[in-house]
């Protein structure tokens, strides 16, 4: 019984496929000009997108952290690391854990950064560092 049902199912699927193929052939012949126009338009669209990306694409330049401002302010490399962590929104304890130093050392670096940047709060320090181009 299952063999008969499977055979009928396969025949039905083959018949449906044949009818769909004939319908596709009729549609392709009736609208062949439209199909060609669509293919040409799609090719020009792809070419335009590729050329536009090549011509107008911006290449990101590496961020250097404005070494001149860092030298003028006297910000050390370790203080730059602490500043980057502050910009990322981390607390003193999180910064200490990430940099493998004590929280008191982080507090000292933060206080020095505030002093060098002329800030009283973290948000002021971040704003000032961004103005100077020290952090992105």
Distance between the termini: 73 Å
Give average pLDDT, whole number: 90
Number of domains: 2
Q: Going by CATH, what is the homologous superfamily of the largest domain?
A: Winged helix-like DNA-binding domain superfamily/Winged helix DNA-binding domain
Radius of gyration: 33 Å
User: Can you give the helix content as a percent range?
Assistant: over 70%
Task: Report the strand count.
Answer: 0
CATH top level class name of the largest domain: Mainly Alpha
Low-confidence runs of at least 5 consecutive residues: none
Describe the structure.
This protein is mainly α and 136 residues long. The protein has two domains: 2-56; 67-132, Orthogonal Bundle (Arc Repressor Mutant, subunit A), CATH 1.10.10.10. The chain is 78% helix and 0% strand. The protein contains seven helices and no strands. It has helices spanning 2-30, 32-56, 67-73, 77-87, 92-99, 103-117, 122-132. Helix 4 packs across helix 6. The longest helix has 29 residues, at 2-30. The termini are far apart.
Blueprint of the fold:
Layout: H1 2-30, H2 32-56, H3 67-73, H4 77-87, H5 92-99, H6 103-117, H7 122-132
Helix pairs in contact: 4-6, 5-6
Summarize the structure.
The protein has 136 residues and is mostly helical.
What characteristics describe this protein?
single chain, about 140 residues, mainly alpha, Arc Repressor Mutant, subunit A, 7 helices, about 80% helix, elongated
């Amino acid at each position: 019984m299952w063999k008969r049902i499977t055979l009928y199912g396969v025949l039905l699927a083959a018949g449906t496929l044949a009818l769909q193929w004939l319908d596709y052939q009729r549609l392709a012949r009736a609208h062949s000009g439209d199909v060609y126009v669509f293919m040409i338009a799609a090719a020009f669209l792809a070419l335009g997108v590729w050329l536009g990306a090549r011509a107008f694409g911006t290449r990101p330049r590496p961020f250097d952290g404005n070494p001149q401002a860092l030298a003028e302010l006297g910000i050390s490399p370790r203080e730059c690391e602490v500043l980057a962590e502050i910009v990322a929104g981390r607390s003193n304890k999180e910064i200490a854990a990430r940099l493998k130093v004590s929280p008191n050392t982080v507090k000292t670096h933060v206080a020095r950064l505030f002093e060098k940047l002329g800030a009283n709060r973290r948000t002021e320090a971040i704003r000032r560092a961004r103005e100077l181009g020290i952090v992105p």
